[in-house]
Amino acid sequence: MKKDLLRLALLIFAFFMAFSASAQGLYQKGKIQISKKKHIDGYIQIDYRFPQRFQEDITYLEPDSYAKWQETGKLKGKKKIKLGLKDFVGFKLDNGQTFKVIKYVDLTKKGLGMLPKRICVEQIAHGKVDAFKRYSNTTGKISYELADVVMDSKTQGDQMLIDYIQDNFQILVQKQDVHKNPRNLQGASLLTLIGDNERVKTNYDNNHYGFRNQFTERQKFGVIVNKQYETSFLKMINDYNGIGVASLEVE
């Protein structure tokens, strides 16, 4: 009897430690930009099962709290600090990912008079044209396809949902002195974005980046795009922004 109780206690302890380690992995080290002059260090919660948790506000731990959590496996709720979208400008993770608070109106939806809404999105290009990646919420009003993935992930594992979220997203773009706020790429004019650079426009027309075919094909699927689309788009927009131009020149 004592052996059975000991075995049960060890199993519970192992489960607790595994859960704690998994939870710790959701917090990534980075710097939060509060204003132009103020930054704070922290461990920011990035959970792709619930992208809304870092797109609609953020939760972070101070370095001391995170270190103690790693040491003891215990974390008090009051140690989790929340910031609303009006309380910070953006943040950068040590892995190189950058997130920025923007104001966005979904112009692809029907109806007028919508006010810009703050959202924290990952920035994937910077220059004359900025580009951002917006992940889909996994709760509330979601697509039937995503709802099926959410349900299936409950039996097949969280990684299924994470993989789907990271390969099905929106790309938002904003051109300096042209767009007041970012807009969905599928609803933007490519001529407006790159038309003032004849070389890049010619490269696009010749499908040099692989993006012309991607752009035409994905329009059939609405605003959601994938990593392959993103890769081709970034080849073009980074060339336009003057990043890696030499390697992308037409031979």
Q: Give the biggest sheet.
A: 10 strands, antiparallel
Low-confidence stretches: 5-22, 245-251
What is the straight-line distance between the termini?
A: 78 Å
| Number of strand segments | 10
Percentage of residues in DSSP E strands: 15-25%
Give the oligomeric state of the chains in this entry, treating copies of one chain as homo and distinct chains as hetero: single chain
Mean pLDDT comes to: 85
What does this structure look like?
This protein is α+β, with helices and mostly antiparallel strands and about 250 residues long. It folds into two domains: about 25-95, no CATH class; about 120-250, no CATH class. About 40% of the residues lie in helices and about 25% in strands. The chain contains ten helices and ten strands. It has helices at about 1-25, 50-55, 65-70, 145-155, 160-165, 190-195, 200-205, 210-220, 225-240, 245-250; strands spanning about 25-35, 40-45, 55-60, 80-85, 90-95, 100-105, 115-125, 130-135, 170-175, 185. Strands 4-3-2-1-5-6-7-8-9-10 form a ten-stranded antiparallel sheet. Strand 9 and strand 10 (about 185) form a beta hairpin. Helix 4 packs antiparallel against helix 5 and helix 8 (about 210-220) packs across helix 9. The protein is globular, with a radius of gyration of 22 Å. About 25% of the residues are buried.
Topology:
Layout lengths: L1 H23 L2 E7 L5 E7 L6 H4 L1 E5 L1 H10 L8 E4 L5 E4 L4 E7 L12 E9 L3 E7 L8 H13 L1 H9 L2 E7 L7 E2 L5 H5 L3 H8 L5 H8 L8 H14 L4 H4 L3
Antiparallel strand pairs: 1-2, 1-5, 2-3, 3-4, 5-6, 6-7, 7-8, 8-9, 9-10
Helix pairs in contact: 4-5, 8-9
